[in-house]
């Protein structure tokens, strides 16, 4: 007989369709192709990639997407049931689904009698015919049809007979999957489970679940539908979507694989989860929420001192799965409470004899608190933190003295490429350098000028590239006079490090972070090259 | 007999204790007092406000907090079971709980045999004695004790007899509430429900639930525990907390009140939810996630064109509750797909005869797309959007011409207050103004100079205050040469409006948003005063 195998759940990602309804999200054709590649690499079963009928860009996309060679995923075109007054074959939107040339298409139809009457303005009978006709037409064109029962749970609550009749119409038309949608996102977990169980029992086809997060329950509702017999889970990898978003597939995949013993991805692919989630976020130009389960920057970040102590003994003490299982990593955050022991740990790198009670440790802790009060955050700015420790330990000497910097910004003169100019004078052991730089904005100009000045003395700065630049306004209410915190991430091609600066003047804050970045690199080089002599 | 009443659930907020373990969160004593006031106004039952034993700042806080007159909430001090080698009365941490002078205290103890042995390094019997002794001592000091069974669900899975024995020790000591903690956040909903039901059945005291969101399930798990008989829900108003955060109480309160017919807050207080959530976020200096259920800026934001059409007919079509019920509001976002109909709607404000097919509408849509491509976002920048529409309709004339601006930034000279200087020359109908401004940073200096110049011609600009200033780096990877989007929120004391500017130069982006802000105000004034003549 068959071997015992983990139950397989089909992951149906709609980042490119429902996800595009999220605030601030707008994908170019190229973005969409890149996201398809990423999702295919992760190994989802279906990628719902757009609505060729409503959006001409989506039509272009499907033409381009045909050229992709996908290893795991299948593309799906999305549309709706035919118009009330046309046959399916006459309806241009339905026909565009055929011309997208995907093997599978998803269409949604109305389940809730209120929606049929008040929004669609059709009779209940007309709606049933629209569903079965459209599915049957698409099946006749050789398509596998996923039927999305919009508002299934609201409809089932309001008029269960009619809701089931709409599913029957889809099943009679030949739908391969009946996906139950909690479109408004307000259904409670136990109702989702019971509704799914009923449909699984009554219909002989595969059942899917499509949840929204308006009540904060999209992940749990998807899991309970799976407990109730659903075999397909629809959502978006990072929870992008209309209003509060769709069900977050990165969380659901990890929950099902690590907790429920089910299989959603090809063998070994779960460890790609964090990396692919971050890549998709980057393409969408949205930061992954640091608190996102499994894939967020803080998913395995420990801050309470007691937690850090325990995790150091055994990570299982405060981690429900290993960070490695989902490709993430453990971090320790600094805080007033945890701070001291973490700071001591860092200090020991320089002087292993230091203990909690050494005056030096107290001095560094006090300095960190003072800077935090000014708006600094050393969480995630390890480069600046190491410099701070060095300065307090006396293991630091400035690489240069600043005599002045001056930055001039002007409105763009027609034809000019640059809008800002910087001049800087630095000294290195009595030798002076005066340089100037132009740039897109004052910080860029300053970066260019400082780099030129330092290169004369320290050729290694040529290897430094700034890879990220973030600005956080600390007290937005003071408007243009508010303090800002600038975080700069740099790399030399091998290591990467982050530094921080705070000031009411954005240029000064950037300057502080920039100087830290260059000094961090120079110190690291000295350590590498001269440690033997020290 | 008793009237039929909605079941009452105790809301136990730990924003000030467990919430302070969230990344980037650090509360001053004043912040804590302000949050207590906000939570009391909302009407939660308990506010767990800190650990007087581990944190001296918390001790100060409790001394100050005694002076507050609270209307609905009760403060709770938090600590742990006594040390293995001391009696409860000898343990300074336990004694500090008494000296915090709250009627109720919460203490946590170990439930999971693995934690007892490997982290606490005590015997299973020692741990039971530590629990019952500590609870009994606190009860003898007149305290009502909430006992937090740390890792209850992990412990119950690993060694159910021992897990229940720890609860028995707490109950025997006199604990009023047994709170079951899913400390690592990895337990599945059905297991939470079953575990809670068992404890409710076995023990004659009130049961609480304390969930973490590591598997994206904290809200659902809390609701299922309530279904299983829990009467107290612990969490943090906005989900702040270690790693992925604690259970989000704003979501749970709204779910229980609007979906489950239970009562968490005093009558009528649910409508304060959004306002209080945003106030707490502001005190914590963290923006409320726009996708947060019920209270987020997008919780009732519609973007898909079809959704907007339907919601315009009947909001119930795509809203699970009314935004007013939780004090939030409905918004419509602009997007490629929805865009056209929204833009038409705005255009009709100026010319009611315009239709979807007018060339002017197409022209504005094309211009919006072009600007979006450059990095503009008109979602949430209604002021700039209205100016854009006016410019395309010919209903706009510049209020001034810019001849030049020039900004100089320098590193702070010792003793100087300001680091930036701006000079500006503008003309109004042939009359020129040349002004200068100093400020904290170049944008502030420019703001000051422009304001001075405009005041001469338009005294109304004196009423404008900038209330918010946000910077978003659009393409962080280009580092200091990246494009930035600046959003400025302004008010004249009556209305408020937001404007946007984009450029690779932060100063230029700010300038664009600043000019839009001033012009928006001036146009609104003209409309008010002269509409009759136009």
Provide an overview of this structure.
Two copies of one chain form a homodimer. Chain A is an alpha/beta fold and 534 residues long. The first copy, chain A, folds into three domains: 10-284, TIM Barrel; 301-393, no CATH class; 401-533, Double Stranded RNA Binding Domain. Helix content of chain A is 41%, strand content 19%. The first copy, chain A, is built from 17 helices and 16 strands. Chain A has an eight-stranded parallel β-barrel, surrounded by nine helices. A three-stranded antiparallel sheet of chain A has the order 11-12-13. A three-stranded antiparallel sheet of chain A has the order 14-15-16. The first copy, chain A, is elongated, with a radius of gyration of 29 Å. The model of chain A has no long low-confidence stretch (mean pLDDT 89). Chains A and B meet through helix 4, helix 9, helix 10, strand 9 and helix 12 of A and helix 4, helix 9, helix 10, strand 9 and helix 12 of B.
Name the CATH superfamily classification of the largest domain in chain A: Aldolase class I
Q: What is the level-2 CATH architecture name of the largest domain in chain A?
A: Alpha-Beta Barrel
Which strand order does the major sheet of chain A show? 1-2-3-4-5-6-7-8
- Output mean pLDDT of chain A: 89
Q: What is the multimeric organization of the chains shown?
A: homodimer
What is the count of structural domains of chain A?
3
Q: How many DSSP E strands of chain A?
A: 16
Low-confidence stretches of chain A: none
Morphology of chain A: elongated
């Amino acid at each position: 007989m068959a071997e015992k195998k983990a139950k397989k759940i089909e992951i149906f990602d709609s980042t490119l369709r429902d996800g595009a309804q999220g605030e601030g999200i707008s994908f170019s054709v190229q973005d969409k192709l890149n996201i398809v590649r990423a999702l295919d690499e992760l190994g989802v079963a279906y990628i719902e990639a757009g609505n060729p009928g409503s959006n001409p860009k989506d039509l272009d996309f499907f033409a381009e997407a045909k050229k992709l060679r996908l290893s795991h995923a299948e593309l799906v075109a999305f549309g709706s049931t035919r118009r009330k007054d046309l046959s399916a074959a006459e309806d241009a939107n339905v026909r565009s689904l055929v011309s997208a040339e995907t093997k599978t298409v998803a269409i949604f139809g109305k389940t809730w009698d209120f929606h049929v009457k008040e929004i669609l303005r059709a009779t209940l009978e007309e709606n049933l015919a629209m569903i079965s006709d459209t599915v049957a037409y698409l099946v006749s064109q050789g398509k596998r049809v996923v039927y999305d029962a919009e508002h299934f749970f609201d409809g089932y609550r309001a008029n269960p007979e009619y809701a089931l009749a709409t599913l029957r119409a889809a099943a009679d038309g030949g739908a391969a999957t009946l996906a139950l949608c909690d479109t408004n996102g307000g259904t409670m977990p136990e109702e989702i489970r019971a509704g799914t169980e009923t449909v699984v029992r009554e219909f002989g086809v595969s059942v899917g679940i499509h949840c929204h997060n308006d009540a904060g329950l999209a992940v749990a509702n998807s899991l309970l539908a799976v407990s109730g017999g659903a075999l397909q889970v629809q959502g978006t990898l990072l929870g992008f979507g209309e209003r509060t978003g769709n069900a977050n597939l990165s969380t659901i995949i990890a929950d099902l694989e690590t907790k429920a013993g089910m299989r959603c991805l090809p063998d070994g692919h779960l460890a790609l989860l964090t990396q692919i989630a971050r890549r998709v976020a980057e393409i969408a130009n949205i930061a992954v929420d640091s608190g996102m389960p499994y894939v967020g920057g803080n998913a395995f970040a420990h801050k309470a001192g007691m937690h850090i102590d325990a995790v150091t003994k055994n990570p299982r003490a405060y981690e429900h799965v290993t960070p490695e299982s989902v490709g993430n990593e453990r971090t320790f955050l600094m805080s007033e409470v945890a701070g001291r022991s973490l700071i001591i740990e860092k200090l020991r790198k320089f002087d292993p004899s230091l203990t909690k009670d050494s005056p030096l440790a107290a001095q560094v802790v006090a300095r960190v608190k003072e800077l935090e009060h000014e708006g600094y955050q050393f969480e995630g700015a390890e480069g600046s933190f190491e410099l701070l420790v060095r300065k307090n330990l006396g293991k630091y000497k400035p690489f240069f003295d600043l005599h002045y910097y001056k930055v001039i910004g002007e409105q763009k003169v027609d034809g000019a490429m640059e809008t800002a100019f910087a001049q800087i004078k630095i000294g290195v052991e009595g030798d002076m350098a005066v340089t100037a730089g132009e740039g897109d904005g004052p910080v860029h100009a300053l970066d260019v000028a400082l780099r030129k000045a330092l290169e004369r003395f320290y050729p290694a700065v040529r290897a430094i590239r700034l890879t990220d630049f973030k600005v956080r306004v600390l007290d937005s209410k003071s408007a243009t006079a508010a303090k800002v915190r600038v975080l700069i991430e740099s790399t030399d091609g091998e290591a990467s490090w982050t530094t921080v600066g705070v000031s009411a003047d954005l240029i000064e804050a950037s300057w502080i972070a920039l100087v830290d970045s260059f000094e961090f690199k120079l110190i690291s080089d000295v350590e590498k090259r001269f440690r033997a002599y020290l």
